Prior knowledge:
The chain has 482 residues and is mainly beta. The chain has helices at residues 10-22, 46-55, 230-240, 243-247, 271-274, 294-299, and strands at 59-67, 73-82, 88-91, 105-107, 113-123, 126-131, 153-158, 166-177, 187-190, 202-204, 210-217, 225-229, 249-250, 253-255, 263-266, 282-286, 289-290, 309-316, 319-326, 328-329, 342-343, 345-351, 367-371, 386-396, 400-409, 412-416, 419-424, 431-439, 442-452, 458-465, 468-472, 478-480.
Amino acid sequence: MRPLKKCLNIAAALAALTTACAARPGETALPAEEPVAAAGVAGQSPDLTELVSRCFPAAVDLKGFSPNTQGYFDIGVGSGVFIHEDGYILTANHVAKDDLGIAPEARMWNGAVHRYRIVTRLGDDLAIVKVDAGKPLPWLPLGRSHDLMLGEPVLIIGNPDGLNHSVSDSLVSGINRSGPGVFLPGMFQVNGSVNGGNSGGPVINALGEVIGIIQSKEETAENIAFALPADHVRKRCAERMTLERWQGVWLGMTVDPYGPGEVTAVEPGSPAAKAGARVGDVVCRAGTTRVSDSVHFYFSLVGRKAGEAFPVEVERDGKKVALDIRLETVPMADAVEVRGLVPGLKFTAYQGTWTSLPDFDKLTPVESGRTDTFPPANCKAAANPFALKFAGYVRVPADGVYNFYVASDDGSRLWIGDELVVDNDGLHGTVERGGFIALKAGLHPITVGYFDAGGGKALSVSYDGPNLPRQAIPPSALFGEP
């Protein structure tokens, strides 16, 4: 537990943690230039100004362009934070704009302006963007949010209403929020000054770690804002930025998303296995990217291609070990040969009360039928609470990596064959999540599970792939057994 948990104000917390902040190797900010010296103000703790001075250079003000209905374009402002020296910025998805093909801007603390590009949209209103400055940039470590406590002191740095690099102190005023004004269950609440333009900006703890990203504020009240927690960022990076699902390239090595880059699985016969990777190795460097956190490892995968060398340095039993990995094309799931299929998926409906997706094999259906839409237009049992299972085959037109997306209120999952591709389970409002899988052209078994515990009912399934723009899976691609 962090020492600040017992502190009742940010000044006391910072005073207690000044030594701890400097003593965490590999996790301190690495400014390319000296941070601006924050001048002390009468009555203000110098420790607070010290923290601001350290963290200030890692925050960025973002500006993007998007078309409007009048045929012109709007300029949007938002915030972000560097979380690696190579220029990777964490921000909100609705802040990252490139609709017009005009390179959006990232403004640093010293007035320097860089063009940024979108690396990936993580879903759940999160995005990773990057500037290429040609030198190391200031950055802050991504912390953990599993141990947040009410009253924990935090800093917020952002770009409210275009006022560059505005700073406010705050407290964690709510944990695991859900309900009105909350975009995603599990967000936490802060009581600091947040306005339009703060979106995407960091919430920073007294250790100088990013523990959340500002997503929204309550428009009908004062001093109520919500942040996406750091652990959720870590989870989404692990889901969306693996080489196999993101770029169709086979590495075959998984790292713990919540730790320093510890290898948790090595796929037999994979390039990582051939190079000698072992469970328990801790990645220190991948390619040219320094790795002190699992998220940094995912950054090292950007732009990788099959056939190229991917040197990785790991720590094993206190020693550095070099792994010479040669990346390969990800193995694609074979299509199946099934005769006598008819259009549409089979669905079965169930009634009951659940907080997560039930085990359908243990339930007795109350209705069954055939459908080519999600949810079925002809299902009579879709009354609260209920669950649906869809089973059949989806046809994909070409070899390649396909992205599947499921939006639901409440929980849902999508499998292709035996592989869980989309996990959107749990009690929540309408939330969309996606996943990636490499498929050969043809038919593949598909299963979708969904439950509704009350309130809104929402379910949609879509996909995209090689030369296939994102769209709802059309009826012409869905088949089932008679």
